[in-house]
From TrEMBL:
InterPro entries: PA_dom_sf (IPR046450), Peptidase_M28B (IPR039373). PANTHER family: N-ACETYLATED-ALPHA-LINKED ACIDIC DIPEPTIDASE, VACUOLAR PROTEIN SORTING-ASSOCIATED PROTEIN 70. It comes from the Eukaryota. It comes from Coccolithus braarudii. This is Uncharacterized protein.
Amino acid sequence: SLCPGDPARAYLPPGAQEELCGYNQSELIPNIPTLPLSYADAAPLLRSLGGPVAPPDFTGALNLTYRLGPTSGGLRAHLAINNSFNKGPVWNVIARVPGTLPPDLDQPVLLGNHR
């Protein structure tokens, strides 16, 4: 995201977005539909690609041979994406877990995740 925070920000009146985060409305809304895919959904699509084998720096961590495409046989994928920009609750969980090292050897450990 170019401008993290409230996703409805992209739909503010013209000019308001630039004032808040430095980007205009056309820059905040993607030009192509995007949707995260699970491994179970992505693997069959990637396995169906033909063409030359992708170079090592153009591959990911899935256990399959990455190819650059295209694929033969008229294979098609249909995506139905119904995104909505809604406000909702956000949670910050902050905790302190006491350790057993003396203060001069103590090191912070930061953990993070998303919901």
